[in-house]
Design goal:
This protein has 138 residues and is mostly helical. It has three helices and two strands. A hairpin with a 5-residue loop joins strand 1 and strand 2. The longest helix is centred in the first third of the chain and has 26 residues. This is Lectin-like protein BA14k.
Length: 138
């Protein structure tokens, strides 16, 4: 019903725009008036307006929201982050038969000459790795 009303209104508007032009064209002539031509022009305008109005009214409305189910797409799952294992060397004490006993004067002399960072109070020195190591004279 709504489309019909729109088409009818647009037809009337189109006819109202076309009909006055025929009246102006005939106003300059001074001979007999043929009303048949005016009626034919009005009918042509009415039909033209109805066709244009129907075409405009039948266009789809874009403000209506219609849900269209999209095709399902396969998405590959994201890789799961797994940290790499970290391998650290295990420091195990190495048992060596010492030539010089710890805490003896010979041991103090050997360690202080060999390591500049030797601490005689603790018997340790600072290695290249930044850690303290016990001085073993051997």
């Amino acid at each position: 019903m709504n489309k019909f009303v729109k088409a009818a209104v647009l037809s009337v508007v189109a006819a109202a725009m076309v009909l006055p032009t025929f009246g102006i064209a005939e106003a300059g002539h001074r001979h007999r008036h043929h009303n048949g031509d005016a009626w034919a022009a009005g009918a042509v305008g009415l039909v033209t307006g109805a066709l244009i109005g129907g075409a405009i009214a039948s266009q789809p409305r874009y403000n209506e929201r219609v849900y269209i189910d999209p095709e399902p797409e396969y998405y590959e799952p994201r890789p799961v982050y797994q940290p790499r294992p970290v391998y650290r060397p295990v420091y195990r004490p190495v048992v060596v038969d010492y030539d010089v006993e710890p805490w003896t004067p010979a041991w103090y002399r050997y360690c202080s000459q060999r390591y500049r960072s030797f601490d005689p109070d603790t018997g340790t020195f600072i290695g290249y790795d930044g850690r303290s190591h016990f001085c073993t004279a051997g």
